[in-house]
Amino acid sequence: MPSLIASPAASAPLPRARSGLGAGVVEAGRPAPPPPETLHPDLWLGHQLGRQVDHAISSGFPALDAELPGGGWPRRVLSELLLPHSGVGEMRLLSRCLAQVQAAGRLVMLFDPPEELCAWALAQMGLDVSQLLIIDTRCTPVPGSDSLWALEQALKSGHVGAVLAWLPPRLRAERLRRLQLAAHAHDGPAFVIREMAAQQRPTPAPLRLALKPGGADVLHLRVLKRRGPPLESPIRLALPPVLPAAAQRRAAQAQVKSQQDWPASMLSQVLQTATFINLAS
Q1: Less CB within 10 Å around the terminal CB: N or C of the chain?
Q2: What pLDDT, in 10s, does the model give residues 216-275?
Q3: Hey, is 276 helix, strand or coil?
């Protein structure tokens, strides 16, 4: 007759399966696996800003750096800036970053700027104009075609410190993807400036910002795309004045001195023209 008394082994409770929710709990003498966002820079949680393998370059604006993944302008990717028109303050926004690149002894290349650049104003922004290489392809039979090829080769070369390019409007998505792939070999920031209407179309660039003037020496900046959570409110940046205080005083003194010898008719004509200048627009 079989025994009705169970053995101690048979009466022991069965082990229960562990739940995967107990992060940080040590099991069998082993620590819990690391969080997934620490495994690779391309992984991050939805509430976190993405990380950068290469050190980012500070924009020179703490409020903007705090909202950029890595704490500054990224390397080896495209940073897309959307403008309603040229001259909203884009050069003053980027001048501090470009000046840092030049201070490190590296070249800065500008592709197809829409207007003639003022060497004096660039120097006031801290840029070494003798170390700027400007590529102008607007005189080619097909405007913009050679600039994209030259821009792609410059990004692939690995010999350029920073790139700033004004892209032609209505650029095809495959051309932009080629530039983004070429930027992977570029150890530095790469900025592309496009029209504001491009925000209605997707972009392979990991960072997309929209710029809008907010008054004299003020720039409003919206983060449309970044490696991290969306940013609902725009960033307000106080840009450095186009003319520093000392230069403004010198310019005012020179103007007063030169006006002393002007005919009355010429003086009235200049003042009438100056009436239409609106620095807040």
Answers
A1: N
A2: 899 999 999 998 888 889 999 999 987 666 655 665 666 555 545 545 443 333 333 222
A3: coil
User: Whose CA is closest to 190, among 230, 144, 158?
Assistant: 158
- 33 falls within a domain: no
Please indicate, yes or no, if residue 8 is contained in any of the structural domains.
Answer: no
CA distance 144 to 139: 9
CA–CA gap between residue 144 and residue 125 (Å, rounded): 28
The three-point CA angle 198-202-207 to 5° equals: 85
Tell me if 161 sits within 8 A of 127, measured CB to CB.
no
Q: How far apart are CA 177 and CA 97, in angstroms?
A: 24
252 in a structural domain = no
Question: Model confidence over 77-91: pLDDT tens digits?
Answer: 999 999 999 999 999
How many domains would you assign to the chain? 1
CATH number for the domain harbouring residue 134:
3.40.50.300
72: tokens are 């500054």
